[in-house]
Amino acid sequence: MKRFLLLLIALGLFSCKGKYDQYKSIKNDPEDYAIVPKPAHLKMQEGRFLIDAGTRIVAADTLGKEAGFLAKYIREEGGMDTKVITDEAEHAIKLQLVDSITNPEGYTLDIDNDSVLLEASTPQGIFYGIQTLRQLLPATIDSAEAGNITLPAVKIVDAPSYAYRGMHLDVARHMFPVDFIKEYIDLIALHKMNTFHWHLTDDQGWRIEIKKYPKLTEIGGFRDETVVTRDPYTGDGKPYGGFYTQDEIRDIVAYAKDRHITIIPEIEMPGHATAALAAYPDLGNGTGPYKTVTTWGVFPTIFAPKEETFTFLEDVLTEVMDLFPSTYIHIGGDEAPKTEWEKSAQAQEVMKREGLANEHELQSYFIQRMEKFLNAHGRQIMGWDEILEGGLAPNATVMSWRGTEGGVEAAKQNHDVVMTPNRYVYLDYYQADPKTEKYGVGPVVTVEKIHGYNPTPAELTPEQAKHILGVQANVWTERMPTQDIVEYMVLPRMSALAEVGWTPRDKKEYVDFTQRMKRLQKIFDAMGLNYAKHIFNSAQTPEKD
Ligand code: ACM
User: Fold this and answer.
1) Can you give the pLDDT at residue 261?
2) 21-158 and 164-537: same fold?
3) Which residue among 204, 302, 330, 384 is best mutated to probe the pocket of ligand 1, counting the most ligand atoms within 8 A of its Cβ?
4) Confidence (pLDDT) at 139
5) 164-537: CATH, from 3.50.50.60, 3.20.20.80, 2.130.10.130, 3.40.50.10420
6) How far is residue 304's CA from residue 301's CA, in Å, rounded to a whole number?
């Protein structure tokens, strides 16, 4: 009986081994490695790794969350259930932390017929390796394939080119449900980006609950209607508004953290403040009463540079810091017309008292006070490039949006910079010929234009260039009332941006990118996303040998 059992086990092992052997010398195609953003180093290998019902994910408890994501992707995109275990196992997918990988976001991935080994020095690096594994899986579950899915053998050594890889979303002009914000975060994660810049306040709406100042959302969170035509003005007659509660925000911050994404909140000052002033008109320059704005543009109503305003903003930022653990707090600083300050006796008095030569220096004084407050709480400020005017706050990081000049100037002054130049990375701009596009404003920013963008300006010395932290695309939602339209404007342009932030410049090639995008397209389809089709319709098919 015992002998018979041994024979059965041996037969079982043999057949199992045979099952794997049949994938040993399979030749893979370049299309099997359609990874976006393209890894820094990738060597195709012969053979494939079979994921079957017995395949285990081996990971220490410290990588439990990451292993959970991998199991989820294998289930959703491969139709297989894989168990996560902490003990060693044969024919397993092993996730392991090692000290030898220097870039905290880097990873190595070795797949052969027998095993999958993913190593990194941090859970974040492991998470990015898992995003790569996800794209190596078959992207749609073919019923013939379910239960029999394989990964192509490969050796990958990968790490990002830039430390800051971000996506911005304006929820003031139009807001989107919590579930959509989570979907947006999922997309950021899929593209190995690490920052979500959340634009929470503007003239047309204040979207973050602040307990100490409830009118910010009660009044500032709503507008009477939304503009339809500008000249002559007509509105849609429909009240519009809403806001995110502090509980919702905490939930979203935790959701992002699990995906190794930092959320940088933006609270606009001194301009883009009309919604706040509608709620608390005493903080204005005596030009009220104010109403939450129903149209788009730049408005003269800005905060008064007085003690009551600073106290208010410090109180607001105290609640913001409590919700968002990010080092950076974005304080806006863009598009603040100085006409009210020119006419205000109070503002002029502050200029005289502080020895400020003009209203730009007054804005600089305003921002520097907020910087001092945030620095005292262990945070750093980030602001749009207008914060250069009148003198940069000592520790500020600059977001260069009106072209790249602001970024160059800030880097020359030894300040850190995130590049978001409008003509390259503004995703509210048209993505193709305006004659054929339903959505968009301004100039045309094609997928190819983004893909070709180099965030490091040539005029910087190598030392100055180190201040270019990375790149971000901005999504202003004046003309994006629904999440479907946001998806259409963002995808696949954010995929091109992901490659700008991650892939070494000399490895980036546009036609090759469009080929690799076909795999990501299947993930977009599986996620039910409304992406733009331009590059998929025109992409050439690869020649096969
Ligand atoms: C901006 O686009 N006003 C930063």
Assistant:
1) 98
2) no
3) 384
4) 64
5) 3.20.20.80
6) 9
pLDDT < 50: residue spans in the chain: 6-14, 143-144, 539-545
**Which class would CATH give 21-158?**
alpha beta
How far, in Å, from the CA of 334 to the mean position of ligand 1?
A: 6
Residues involved in catalysis: 202, 272, 335
Q: For residue 399, which atom of ligand 1 is closest to its CA? A: 4
Of 445, 476, 477, the residue with max ligand 1 atoms within 8 A of its CB, to mutate for a pocket test, comes to: 476
DSSP H or E segment with residue 96: strand 93-97
Cβ contact 326:262 at 8 Å: yes
- Enumerate the β-bridge partners of residue 330: 266, 382
Kindly report the backbone phi and psi dihedral angles of residue 258, in degrees, each rounded to the nearest multiple of 5, phi listed first: -60, -25
**Per-residue confidence (pLDDT) for residue 141, from 0 to 100:** 60
The tokens of 508 are what?
A: 């980036």
What b/e string do you get for 513-542 counting C-beta neighbours within 10 Å, with b at 16 or more? bbbbbbbbbbbbeeeebbbbebbeeeeeee
Q: In sequence order, what are the beta bridge partners of 471?
A: 165, 419
Q: For position 53, what pLDDT does the model report?
A: 85
Measured in Å, residue 490 CA sits from the centre of ligand 1 at 17
**From the CB of 334, is ligand 1 less than 6 Å away?**
yes
Q: At what angle do helices 123-136 and 178-190 cross, to 10 degrees?
A: 90
Q: In angstroms, what is the span from residue 308 Cα to ligand 1's centroid?
A: 26
Domain segments of the chain as ranges? 21-158, 164-537
